[in-house]
Amino acid sequence: SQQGEEDPQALSIQEGENATMNCSYKTSINNLQWYRQNSGRGLVHLILIRSNEREKHSGRLRVTLDTSKKSSSLLITASRAADTASYFCATDPYEGSGGGADGLTFGKGTHLIIQP
Amino acid sequence: NAGVTQTPKFRVLKTGQSMTLLCAQDMNHEYMYWYRQDPGMGLRLIHYSVGEGTTAKGEVPDGYNVSRLKKQNFLLGLESAAPSQTSVYFCASSLQGGQPQHFGDGTRLSIL
C-alpha cells in the first residue's frame, strides 16, 4: 500500500512563481526522497533528506522534513517551463516499522504545470 | 554511461501470451526493482532483488515472475498475460536498499 501521499494532486502556476508540494507518510522512516518524472520518461532522483535532518537545499529546490508530523514539503523557487513534470515523494521505512518491502515506497505524485 | 536500460519500449500482447521484459544496469548496483505505474495509482513494487541470484516479492507480485542470474540484469516475466496487466513497467536500481534509485524509461505494455 502507498506510504506517501502528495498534496495537491495537481498544481498550475505561472513561470517565475514558487511551487510548493507536500507529502505525508505513515510510518517511521530512515530517509525521504523526492523524484521528478517528465512525461513519457522514468523517474529522476532530486534530493534525499535523512530522518535527522530538517531542511535541505539543492539549487532551486528546498526540502523540509517534520518527522513529528510525518510530513515533508518540496519548494521549487523561480519556476521555469522545464519544471513541468510529476513530482513524487518516496520513503525508506525504518526497519521494524511495518512499512513494507525492502526499498522505497512511492506516493501517487503531484502533477506540476508551469504556464509560460 | 547508459544507466538503466529497458527493452522493449513498447509491446502489445494478446491475452494468454507470455513475454519477458529485460532490464540492464551498468552501475554495479546490488539492488534492482520492477514497478508498474497505472494512472492515479502511482508506482507499485512488483518484485525486487537485493543481489545476484536473489529475488523477493513486492506489493503486487501475482502474475509475474523474475530472475536475477547476473548482477547487471533483472528480468520480469508474464507467463499468461491478462488485460489487468496493461501498464507502464519501470525498472530501477540502487547501490543499497533505501538509497536513491535510478530508473529506466519504461516499457509500455498493452494486453488486448
What this model shows, in words?
The complex is a heterodimer of chains A (about 120) and B (about 110). With about 120 residues, chain A is mostly beta strands. Chain A has strands at about 5, 10-15, 20-25, 30-35, 45-50, 55-60, 60-65, 70-75, 85-95, 105, 110-115. In chain A, the strands form 2 sheets. In chain A, strands 2, 4, 5, 9, 10 and 11 form a 6-stranded mixed β-sheet that branches. Chain A has a 5-stranded antiparallel β-sheet with strand order 1-3-8-7-6, with no helix packed on it. Chain B is mostly beta strands and about 110 residues long. In chain B, strands 2, 4, 5, 6, 9, 10 and 11 form a 7-stranded mixed β-sheet that branches. Chain B has strands at about 5, 10-15, 20-25, 30-40, 40-50, 55, 65, 75-80, 85-95, 100-105, 105-110. Chain B contains no helices and 11 strands. The N and C termini of chain B lie far apart (about 35 Å). Chain B is globular, with a radius of gyration of 13 Å. Classes of the chains: A mainly beta (about 120), B mainly beta (about 110). Chains A and B meet through strand 4, strand 5, strand 9 and strand 10 of A and strand 4, strand 5, strand 6, strand 9 and strand 10 of B.
